[in-house]
Amino acid sequence: MRFVVLTVFVVSGLVSCSLKQEAVLNEKELLGKAIFFDENLSEPAGESCATCHTPEVGFADKYSRITSEGAVKGRFSNRNSMTCAYSSFVPPLYYDEEEDTYIGGLFWDGRVNTLEEQAAQPFVNPLEMANKDYLVVVEKVKKAPYYPQFVKIYGEPLSDDSIYKCINNALSVYERSAEVSPFTSKFDAWKEGKCKLTKQEKKGYKLFKDKGLCAECHILDKDERAGRILFTDHTYDNLGIPCNPENPFYMISEPYNVHGRDTIDLGLGSFLKDSAQYGKFRVPTLRNIALTAPYGHNGYFRTLEEIVHFYNVRDIEDFPPAEYPATVNKDELGNLGLTVEEEAAIVAFMKTLTDGYQTD
Predict the structure, then answer these.
(1) Is 53 annotated as belonging to a binding site?
(2) pLDDT tens for residues 287-341?
(3) What's the domain count of the chain?
(4) Residue 195 in marked binding region
(5) CA 195 to chain centre
(6) Can you tell me the mean pLDDT for 33-62?
(7) Full-model pTM
(8) Residue 49 assigned to a binding site
(9) Considering the domain boundaries, does residue 174 fall inside one?
(10) What sequence ranges are listed for the domain Di-haem cytochrome c peroxidase (predicted)?
(11) Smallest Cα–Cα separation from 292: which of 63, 30, 86?
């Protein structure tokens, strides 16, 4: 059984204030959390998993940046940091022949299938935690104050490979915990009959389902893996989002960016080497969406109001062209006919998806 408590967690001298409502974690989840918040695991030290996935902003970038700066100053990732909350419910990537679309896979482009695989990548990505190789990470964990607990849980591993696998397993266990995916929003409380939505929020919910077409991708069916509504069908789409001229990745030099400002992010299609999927990115959950600005794979939209307006009028107002025009979704957004008041109502409804809501 899990309980709701107020806590402050201390890791390697760093005090991390956790969410207002937080599940009590078991030993392995606590170990994973210690690794998740450990700023000594980057090169140079100073960046942790939590830097780009901070609880207070819905497990997205701590500083709400367009893209996150890595441990090496001046190196930026090419994409906005996607929330890792509720990522434990994303299925492995597969092609659904009936729906004629790819579904699942982690990261914006679906390039890995498990949380363990996902956890391993930032450690050795030169634009993120920038360690030379996984052996460096292993040595740092061996020197960490939580290493005795690591050994207690996993035993004395025989090789550095097994230690690294255990590190990523611990991280994945924490990411699967109720602290990362708590389902404690006002929407959840409303569905359980514990509170009421305002008139504007109710209107927004109806518009979300019907006129706004939001629920076509951010579906309102219960997810089979979660047993709750995740507000995503885990599919891929090209929304017609323009290039973001403020994306700091454009200023990164070779070998990390060989095309400079001419870089085009091809998303899923780049991973699959399939031009039919160019420009498509995974539909993210809308849970905690009010906390995770900016929005879009490249952080083009600064506010919820901006991105909702774009969905509404993309095809009838003067927006810059899509980053990759050929595969843009023309059916479910672009000219929805929403009024200013209706756009505001949809935003009001989406704000009910923020975790930590407390009923009287």
Answers:
(1) yes
(2) 999 999 999 999 999 999 999 999 999 999 999 999 999 999 999 999 999 999 9
(3) 1
(4) no
(5) 28
(6) 98
(7) 0.91
(8) yes
(9) yes
(10) 27-194
(11) 63
